[in-house]
Amino acid sequence: MPIHKVLIVDDSKTELLYLTEILQKNGFTVRSAENADEAFKRLGEERPQLILMDVVMPGQNGFQLTRAINRTPEYSDIPIIMCTSKSLETDRVWGMRQGAKDYITKPVDAAELLAKIKALG
Q1: Could you tell me where the DSSP H helices lie in 1-121?
Q2: How far apart are CA 78 and CA 74, in angstroms?
Q3: Rg (Cα) of the chain, in Å, rounded?
């Protein structure tokens, strides 16, 4: 099933704008959240088909939030792509262990992001 609805979770307004622009130009419907509480609120309002997750955020970080979403039965089947400045291999491995389906480092290359999304859909 092709992915159309994406939730971006990132505390950086610049990143939210950049990722939203890439996705909307390519036909995706985008919603955003700047922290874990907002993310769960958005999940309850309208179920996305994909979540792009930052790691470094105040409060609950992206690793913790990914784990929490994957442990919540009604959301556990939503794929998550970690989208972060944390570029170490250990970060990627840890993100995948928390339940992420893929991992991309910032600055995000639009073609790489779209290819990863297409591979999930």
Answers
A1: 13-25, 36-45, 62-70, 89-97, 110-120
A2: 9
A3: 13
Give pLDDT tens digits for 6-64: 999 999 999 999 999 999 999 999 999 999 999 999 999 999 999 999 999 999 999 99
- Tokens coding 57: 């955020």
3-state helix, strand, coil in the chain (%, to 5): 45, 20, 40
pLDDT classification of 121: cutoffs 50, 70, 90: confident
pLDDT of residue 119: 95
From the DSSP assignment, how many helices (H) and strands (E) are in the chain? 5, 5
Which has the closest alpha carbon to 82: 64, 104, 50?
104
Q: What is the pTM of this model?
A: 0.96
Tell me how far CA of residue 12 lies from CA of 19, 37, 71, 96, in angstroms. 11, 16, 26, 22
Sheet of 50-53, strands arranged across: 29-33, 5-9, 50-53, 80-84, 102-105
